[in-house]
Design goal:
Blueprint lengths: L8 E4 L2 H10 L3 E6 L5 E6 L2 E7 L11 E6 L2 H16 L9 E7 L5 E6 L5 E6 L13 H15 L3 H14 L5 H17 L3 H12 L5 H21 L1
Parallel strand pairs: 1-4, 5-8
Antiparallel strand pairs: 2-3, 3-4, 6-7, 7-8
Helix pairs in contact: 3-4, 3-5, 4-5, 5-6, 5-7, 6-7
Length: about 240
């Protein structure tokens, strides 16, 4: 049958806190009740999320996850980031809630992730991208960054991601400057999440000091700008 839809229902500890978070990233509350059970609906254009309150719920133990497929994940990230800055004063990149910047994920899927106050993951991907469609296989340090990103961004294990990345940087020394740049930029981001501000600053400085071509600097410009903001905000 045509026009069928499925809506995720996500748990939260405090319904109004969850509603406020979604409103900060551009959703509108379309429904709310407290009896017989706490329940709400938030919507942002065609994205609808249903929320339900659970007494004594621990967001750190949440397994809630939603795949959101959009034409332009970078534009959506910018909109989310603007809203979160206005509420938190800076981008929340560690703990709950948090947002992780866009990147090309393992394979070819580009997108970003958001963890809401209930500990639920919104995994935003670009429509049309599939890992199975990958024709470009990464190797060396670029592959290490892919693996580290899966650990840090997909699984939320920033410490394991940093350990993997450090090992890769030590192992793959003779690599293209742009690959080393991406690895150093991601190390700076992970260091911010882990509150290692000295490592964050040194990693970003090392990335910016690399001998890159003009085209390579343009290719890394967005990543440098995003991570520079995180490093400065964390100081």
């Amino acid at each position: 049958m045509a026009n069928e839809r499925t809506y995720p229902c996500l748990p939260c500890r405090d319904l109004d806190e969850a509603i406020g978070f979604y409103e900060s990233v551009g959703f509108a509350r379309t429904y709310r009740q407290m009896r017989p059970n706490p329940y709400a609906v938030v919507a942002r254009e065609e994205i609808q999320i249903h929320l339900f309150g659970m007494e004594n719920f621990d967001p750190g133990q949440s397994y809630g996850s939603v795949i959101v497929v959009v034409p332009d994940p970078d534009a959506l990230y910018r909109a989310f980031a603007t809203g979160l800055r206005s509420v938190y004063g800076k981008l929340p990149t560690a703990g709950i809630p948090r947002i992780l910047r866009p990147r090309k994920r393992y394979g070819t899927v580009r997108g970003f992730s958001v963890v809401d106050p209930g500990g639920n993951w919104l995994r935003v991907s670009k429509s049309g991208d599939t890992e199975e469609a990958a024709t470009e296989k990464t190797t060396g340090l670029a592959r290490v960054v892919d693996v580290a990103a899966r650990l840090g961004d997909a699984h939320g294990d920033d410490a394991a991601a940093l350990k993997t990345l450090e090992s890769g940087l030590a192992r793959f020394v003779d690599v293209p400057a742009i690959d080393r740049g991406r690895a150093l930029i991601y190390r700076a981001e992970l260091a911010v999440r882990l509150n290692d501000h000295a490592l964050a600053r040194s990693s970003l400085s090392e990335a910016q000091a690399l001998a890159l071509t003009d085209d390579e600097r343009v290719a890394l410009a967005d990543e440098v700008a995003q991570v520079s903001e995180l490093v400065l905000a964390g100081e």
